[in-house]
Amino acid sequence: MTTTRWLDAEEALAWRAWVDLNAQLSARLNRELQAASGLSLSDYEILVALTDDDVPDHSLRMFELGERLQWEKSRVSKQVSRMEARGLLERRHCADDRRGAFVDLTEAGQAAIDAAAPSHVALVRELFFEGLDGEQVRSLGKFATGVLARLADGS
């Protein structure tokens, strides 16, 4: 039988702060983004994924988009359908895989992210980075990279 190694008081405080920060920050970013641009945070995440420098022709397979965002297949499909109805994306069938599809960024989708990005980035800077010095930003990046590496390893 394995004994649970419980969080100490300091770890528990840090963990709760992280959970609360993540929830409150996501909610605030979503509200502000919708008010400023009409895009949800989910819309924005998909548009960012499709406009990454490493995405040729602003097109990804549905499964690739899901992997990038760490979303379930049904969530990707529903979100893409909502965005497709608004003209931000187009779904294109894959000739090599009858069940597969590509998600393509439209001109309207590009215009939407171009319009939304400046105020969204300013809000991220204000809410998240304001008050941090360079060393704190580097430490935060190192911390996040380490956690992501452990998640990728399955540990």
UniProtKB/TrEMBL annotation:
Question: Where do the HTH marR-type domain residues begin and end?
Answer: 1-149
**Top-level lineage group:** Bacteria
- PANTHER family given for it? MARR FAMILY REGULATORY PROTEIN, TRANSCRIPTIONAL REGULATOR, MARR FAMILY
Stated name of the protein: MarR family winged helix-turn-helix transcriptional regulator
